[in-house]
Amino acid sequence: MKIEIWSDIMCPFCYIGKRHLETALNQFSDADAIDVVWKSYQLDPYIPRNPEYKNTYAYLAATKGMSYDEAKQMTAGVTQAAANAGLTMDFERAVVANSFDAHRLVHLAQTKGLASTVKENLFHAHFTEGKDVNSHEVLIAVGTAAGLTETEISAVLASDLYSDAVAADIREARDIGVRGVPFFVFNRKYAVSGAQPTDVFLQTLEKSFAEWRAENPKVTLTVAEGPTCGPDGRCD
What we know:
The chain has helices at residues 12-26, 56-63, 68-84, 100-110, 115-128, 136-146, 150-157, 163-175, 198-215; strands at 2-7, 35-40, 183-186, 190-193. It is an alpha+beta fold.
């Protein structure tokens, strides 16, 4: 069964929601039958490619009409919510960057089955390590740490590969009524909006999977055994 997740690397609740979903999956007995698909979304596509703001507080103060101290106060609850999920968020260091190329990297990783690992690395690089996730050097480091090769990452970053896929995800989000992220879609039937508690994810997971399994029963075969050759090269 497919779970599609619209999120942005710049969104702290997307990181928290990811962790809550993972906790639910760890409690779910059929987790190996779940396919997580990451979808692109940009909260602010107009953030310059070269970071202009010292950190998240400076960005909020400049764009949301609040003072630096008010920005600190506004994010205090988010920092605590992250800590409750076992995450460290350092908004004093977090570099506000354009996330478009990071989303292209996730699309590349998805073709290799590494998207969730790359997404985790991107969140950690941004919120915990204070790295510029628009920097190609950072994106190469993030991708290679997850198992991608520098050659394939560099080829994507030097081209427009996956740009259309990122744009298509964003259009699709608008078409299905996504008004904010994170946004989780289970089997194209149920949705969870926001970093809901783990129990909400688990309940939605159980309900949607039960329906999916009814429509996609396991195949059980009665096998008449005979001589075979296996992928290890042995023929018996």
